[in-house]
Amino acid sequence: VLTSSYSYLFGVPVSVYGAVYFLVVALVSLAGVLSLNFAAASVLLFFSSVGALVSLYYFFISKIILNSYCLICIGIYLSTFLLLLLTLLAVSGKVISNLKIGFYATVNFY
Predict the structure, then answer these.
(1) Model's pTM, two decimal places?
(2) Per-residue b/e over 48-62, b at no fewer than 16 CB within 10 Å?
(3) The dihedral of CA 43, 71, 20, 16: what is its sign?
(4) Phi, psi torsion values for 8, nearest 5 degrees
(5) Rounded Cα gap, residues 25 and 51, in angstroms
């Protein structure tokens, strides 16, 4: 898998893109945690969705075209899907939490 033609994109190893992806996700996550900003959570949802789609794409290449598996790659696929799941849970909780806070603030205001 790592030596196939699919391991490079525009002459750059796919692993470099993966490292940059996880760095951006970590920074956006940190920004979201520090600021409790819904916009940061939305950006994280976008990146985790794209990461899951790319992982799915590379999984199918690995399984169908190359008929070969890479344990590190499978770990990365699972990590991106776990990231998407956790992000969806966090964003849905944040939406519910924001609605409750808004509702209580409105009720308490009157």
Answers:
(1) 0.67
(2) beebbebbeebbebb
(3) negative
(4) -125, 145
(5) 10
